């Protein structure tokens, strides 16, 4: 566990450990949950489909492609235990592959019309 105060900046770093220097990381989705077993309902979305959803999120410079650095403000769920669990999904791509998910960035999915 890592203890922080409410609204304190929480800094994170994710690194890919590979002998291949031509790989890079992309933060696809990152959500927080009040329980460690459910990351689908009642979550706080920080990043989804590469799009920033939390206004306190900020990305930071990294000296290489296979390390991501970012932060967001710590928070607590109302009427819940003080623990918050984080789950992030990262995509590994070939560097300079401009058709890869890493180079698409934020992908906003269009809503489908409900048929009668």
UniProtKB/TrEMBL annotation:
<dbReference type="InterPro" id="IPR001507">
    <property type="entry name" value="ZP_dom"/>
</dbReference>
<dbReference type="InterPro" id="IPR055355">
    <property type="entry name" value="ZP-C"/>
</dbReference>
<protein>
    <submittedName>
        <fullName>DMBT1 protein</fullName>
    </submittedName>
</protein>
<feature type="domain" description="ZP">
    <location>
        <begin position="1"/>
        <end position="109"/>
    </location>
</feature>
<dbReference type="InterPro" id="IPR042235">
    <property type="entry name" value="ZP-C_dom"/>
</dbReference>
<dbReference type="Pfam" id="PF00100">
    <property type="entry name" value="Zona_pellucida"/>
</dbReference>
<keyword id="KW-1015">Disulfide bond</keyword>
<keyword id="KW-0732">Signal</keyword>
């Amino acid at each position: 566990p890592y203890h922080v105060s409410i609204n304190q900046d929480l800094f994170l770093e994710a690194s890919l450990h590979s002998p291949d220097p031509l790989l890079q990381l992309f933060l696809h989705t990152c959500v927080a949950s009040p329980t460690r077993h459910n990351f689908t309902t009642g979550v706080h979305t920080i990043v989804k489909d590469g799009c920033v959803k939390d206004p306190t999120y900020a990305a930071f410079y990294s000296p290489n492609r296979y390390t991501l650095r970012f932060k967001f403000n710590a928070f607590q769920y109302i009427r819940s235990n003080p623990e918050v669990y984080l789950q992030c999904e990262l995509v590994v791509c070939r560097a300079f592959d401009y058709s890869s998910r890493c180079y698409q960035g934020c992908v906003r999915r269009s809503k489908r019309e409900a048929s009668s």
